Amino acid sequence: MQMQSQGGAVLAIPQALVTQDAPEASARTKPLVRMQHISKVYSNGTVALRNLNLDVEQNEFVSLLGPSGCGKSTALRLVAGLGGFTRGAIDWPTSTYDAYGKPEREVGFVFQEATLMPWATVFDNVYLPLRLKNMNRKAVTERVKSVLELVGLDKFADSYPRELSGGMKMRVSIARALVTQPKLLLMDEPFAALDEITRTKLSNDLLDIWRKAQCTVMFVTHSVFESVYLSTRIVVMAARPGRIVGELPIDEPYPRDPSFRMTPRYSAHCREVSSLLDKAMNS
Questions:
Q1: Helix (H, G, I), strand (E, B) or coil at 221
Q2: Is the alpha carbon torsion for 255, 258, 262, 266 positive or negative?
Q3: Extended strands (E) in 42-122
């Protein structure tokens, strides 16, 4: 099976993806997105970001970790094009550009709240981004069904948000972000409002979705433990002004299951990240 083009084709999982391996990063010479010397200053003088430089490689799972106010969510929104920056540049080396010089970002965004339409079914909530692109509902029905199956909600297509748990609502939000077949999935603390058991379950599911969808993930979190479990790389940020103080690769194989959390390697990574985070909070 093939994942076909965006013009109404079915979202299917290629046979090659039915493995136990993480996606392999592409050649390091061409990142998916490059943030160069980005600064963001609000009209009231607040410096949200200062001189931020970050390359995100294809098929990476990068977590942005740091205290409140360090600009993690701001960085995500700038990558999505949901706001302007004061100076610097954001480049998309592997993307095409339109006649106006704007890149085809091909991003999906998952917010902290699921923000579903309460009057619409799960199917129609996921279909929304395609409807906004004027794509015929019937033509993309199989694509929507496929992405619902990917997040484990294929049996709930006709349900309404009020009938779902918090974790299920977040799955709908993830499906809605994936239905456009993005190259980059941006996730702004998507599990923050969930209980610990649901959060752990969704972390496991997210890694499986990432592997099958073969996309890149930028994930904002306050949790050291969550970032170590999920990521190929952790970027630690400090506040006032928002800036990167260090990066740490998590060079551990996938799949990562709950047993990984019990290993000495996991504990060592958590201590290392915690140390860097402590530096960020006191810098």
A1: strand
A2: positive
A3: 47-56, 61-65, 87-91, 107-110
Distance separating alpha carbons of residues 237 and 246, to the nearest angstrom: 7
68 part of a folded domain: yes
Per the CB < 8 A criterion, the answer to whether 8 and 139 are in contact is yes
C-alpha to C-alpha distance for 276 and 239, rounded to whole angstroms: 13
Asked if residue 52 is part of any domain, the answer here is yes
Render each residue's pLDDT in the chain as its tens digit; 283 residues.
434 433 333 333 333 333 345 565 544 568 999 999 999 999 999 999 999 999 999 999 999 999 999 999 999 999 999 999 999 999 998 887 766 667 777 899 999 999 999 999 999 999 999 999 999 999 999 999 999 999 999 999 999 999 999 999 999 999 999 999 999 999 999 999 899 999 999 999 999 999 999 999 999 999 999 999 999 999 999 998 999 999 999 999 999 999 999 999 999 999 999 999 998 988 7
Lookup: tokens for 187? 């996730």
Residue pair 95/31 in contact (Cβ under 8 Å)? The answer is no
Query: 216 - beta bridge partners?
Result: 184
**142 falls within a domain:** no
Closest CA to 269 of 253, 254, 249: 249
Give the tokens for residue 182: 């993005």
- Residue linked to tokens 């484990």: 152
Residue ranges making up the domain that contains 73: 30-106+220-283
Within the chain, strands assigned E span 33-41, 47-56, 61-65, 87-91, 107-110, 184-188, 216-221, 233-238, 243-249
pTM: 0.88
> Does 200 fall in a domain?
no
Tokens 């379950």 -> residue:
201
CATH code of the domain covering residue 95: 3.40.50.300
User: Domain tally for the chain?
Assistant: 1
